TrEMBL record:
It comes from Amycolatopsis keratiniphila. Coiled coil: none annotated. The lineage of its organism: Bacteria, Bacillati, Actinomycetota, Actinomycetes, Pseudonocardiales. The chain crosses the membrane at residues 116-135, 141-162, 174-193, 213-235, 242-267, 273-296. Keywords: Membrane, Transmembrane, Transmembrane helix. This is DUF389 domain-containing protein.
Amino acid sequence: MLHLRAVCPPDRTGEAIRILRAHTGTAHLVVHHGVAVAPEGDLIEADIAREAADEIIESLCGLDLDHTGGITLEALDTAVSDAADKAEEAAPGEGADAVVWQELVGRSGEESRLTWTFQAFLTIACLLAAVGVITNSAVTIVGAMVVGPEFGPLAAIAVGVVLRRGDLVKQGAVALLGGFPIAMVITLGVVLVGNATGVLEVSKLAENHEVDFVYQVGIASLIVALLAGAAGMLSMTSAKSAALVGVFISVTTVPAAGYAVVAAVAGQWERCLYSAGQLLVNLIGIVAAAAIVLTLRRRGQRSRVTERPLSRG
């Protein structure tokens, strides 16, 4: 279940209540008249089934509440109520399968901005990858995969493509095209200093076979990227964020960037080129698979809405 709060102008309150009362996925409807201060108006609260959220929010936005008032959602871990149980049973589909599109757009936008925090995580991940490559440590490479924040912008691009939101595509692209070069340049400086001082010796790169998988690009790399992109988008759209950790560990985006830097310092230009190819294949594969999954889920959800049971009178 989700808890919905809507700040509503008084002249729209009656229509908003009608929408919520009419939908079978609504429970615990409460109205507070005149309590909203900024913007002024009424406050409407209700618990709604997750699978009904997208349709309800779309209807409320049709009243222009997203501009004249405000709509917020928060997840409910527990709802002990017969009314809540009935709402979930009456709503079409399953809660775990439902996509709340406004939530997805908001989350994608938030996690795809080129911020100092994003850049810091990406740089640290790239540095970890470089250290893992130099020390022949697959465990460190895995650590770099987990720390890397690049899935957020990739997901935003996929969401933007499917929903035709150019702002999300641009925002995700800026984060990637700006973040990766900066992280790689910083990593290059650290590796050069480390190699000059003997702390990080790149001379034995050709002997570090434990991490060869990072630069060995091929059809298997594309398959893994496609599967990771699909799993990542399923995780985001079903609110099962724990699965994202597995997605991070399965793809070699940041490790490929780190390997390219180390290979360049070592003069291994062929491996550097292959690593760049690995990075590109992973980025494209993740976005493509995420967009396909999102498209399929959108079509499936639309078909379930058309088959929704009759609303309450």
